[in-house]
Amino acid sequence: MSDVIVRLTGVGRVFASTAAVSDVSLCISTGERVAVLGPSGAGKSTLLALINGSLSATSGVVEIFGSEIAALRAPQLRSIQRRIGTVSQRLDLVDQVRVLHNVNAGRLAQWGTARALIALVWSRPDTIAMSALARVGLSWAVHERTERLSGGERQRVAIARMLVQKPDLVVADEPVSSLDPARTAATLDLLCEAASEGTTIVSLHQPQLAREYCTRAVGLKNGRVVFDLPTNQLTDAALSELYTLA
Length: 246
What we know:
Elements: E1 4-15, E2 18-29, E3 33-37, H1 44-51, E4 59-64, E5 67-68, H2 74-81, E6 84-87, H3 99-104, H4 113-121, H5 127-135, H6 151-165, E7 169-173, H7 181-194, E8 199-203, H8 207-213, E9 216-221, E10 224-230, H9 236-243
Parallel strand pairs: 3-8, 3-9, 6-7, 7-8
Antiparallel strand pairs: 1-2, 1-4, 4-5, 9-10
Helix pairs in contact: 5-6
């Protein structure tokens, strides 16, 4: 299908002798908002890293925007990754620089080398950066050193960095784990609106958020898909089985 953005076929990833993800097959199409659910250690972060190309599969085939990731050369992979806005659990911020520099890092791929290097040490607030910071409620922090912010505020800086990238696909790994309920709602709204093609993949620990903000839920347990269904069909029985220790 031409509208399939992500296709995983029999995908696995092994670390040392441990399988983090096993035999996962998924197709995700334009406009879907997919929640990845599961207990800690289920393989959610590994799955998202396989989708954004930051991790390679040890088995199976990963295709993003119609291209098989394993067959791409480094420049081609970077071209694909420029279309993917990622918010990782680590956040990947440079704590020693100002918030503005971290936000503008989302635009480095759009700028030439000289401008990108200048932006690492000196930047002026512009409409794009300030708009992104306003959307996450951090206009006041534009010149603050990132290390001085709270965990939740740093998480919002990472989301602002993703917003200026203007991605076609958003991949977010537990993006609301450090946020209060009001900020959680606003952030999930943002993530669902951020992708130009309307496609968002987000790992969550709260099934109710999946029901409210996503159209589809994928349940992972021990690295395997145990359910894949519309969120309006997500039952308490399915969730109980997913989170039962085994």
